[in-house]
Hints:
single chain, 395 residues, alpha/beta, 12 helices, binds pyridoxal-5'-phosphate
Amino acid sequence: MSTSFDTALMKITPRPLPVMACGAGSFLWDEAGKRYLDFIQGWAVNSLGHAAPEVSAALAEQAARLVTPSPALHNRPQLELAELLVAGSDFAQVHFANSGAEANEAAVKLARKWGQLHRAGAAEILTTDGAFHGRTLAMMAASGKPNWDTMFPPRAPGFRRVPFGDLDATAAAIGPQTVALMLEPIQGEAGVVVPPAGYLAGLRALADRHGLLLILDEIQTGVGRTGTFFGFEHEGVRPDLLTLGKGIGGGVPLSAVLATADAACFEFGEQGGTYNGNPLMCAVGNAVVSTVRDADFLAGVVARGVQMRIGLERLAECHSALEVRGRGLLWALRLRDPIAEQVVTQAMTAGLLINAARPDVLRFMPSLRVTAAEVQQMLAILGSVLQAVTAAEVQ
Ligand SMILES: *Cc1c(COP(=O)(O)O)cnc(C)c1O
């Protein structure tokens, strides 16, 4: 849908015509004044919704005080956010970065360093089919998206894939060069794919038996998205390394890798980045994490999640959709036919933003503060759009 007004932008993704102008909570407005109920939220990024008062206040206050001293100098928000993340978990240390891919790269570096220290240089990371770990060259090799291995050859070495959810295949792929297992506890970009019960515990047992690190990419599932602060809490399994991104910044570029004392093996000079741990983003991170890591807040996520599941299951029945899957406020509806793009386009016309994660899968990632009325409104709009699109298909 490229038109003359966007010719100065590289071709990254075909964007619809409206230019987004402002947002508040669960709503976005374009420059023409049209309002959208937003169940994408910047791709599960605005955990507290658009223009959240905590985020705006943290940005304004910190911007007026100190934006960037230098990554080689301490700043208070970074110290506070590291303490906050470590205090509520089994992790010992944190390193901050600016994007999810960058945090995952840091986790892979830590695993390879750990392999040098403890596993005679073993460096291979087992990842999973359908995985999404980001778009740097190494993370494209770690991901399991169709065509990604051949897009920008040569493919970065050191990653080998196994089927997601398959413990036997994982066990069979482990060799002397394997140093870590890396995966998302729920695959987000693949269309909210939830693995079988016991999968994470099985991977933890495999890692322990073979002396491997377990790396969880919680860039999409972390920071309250599934109803617990970390997604892995549902499984009672402890990873050695964990990455956060998206929701931790509440809309600003902030990511983190968290490590147990054993896995936090960087020495001076091995990792860095100009904007890593800058006070402006860490101040926002502090506001987001302290808001989300509250029992009442998380109870709200769980309650809205139950409402989403029941509502989507009802819609699935009416429209003979195949499956509703997800947890907390990360959901997908698998349709019988590959009509997700049409549904997304018509929903946007009707004032609702949702995502087509696959040709036959719709994905929902609302603000963690979405209200019961907003969920109801989303379900109503989606119901009528599904009705219209499937009626058009039949003709
Ligand atoms: C979005 C995402 C990433 C990549 O994050 P960026 O900030 O886009 O680099 C990595 N892993 C998962 C699970 C994601 O959802």
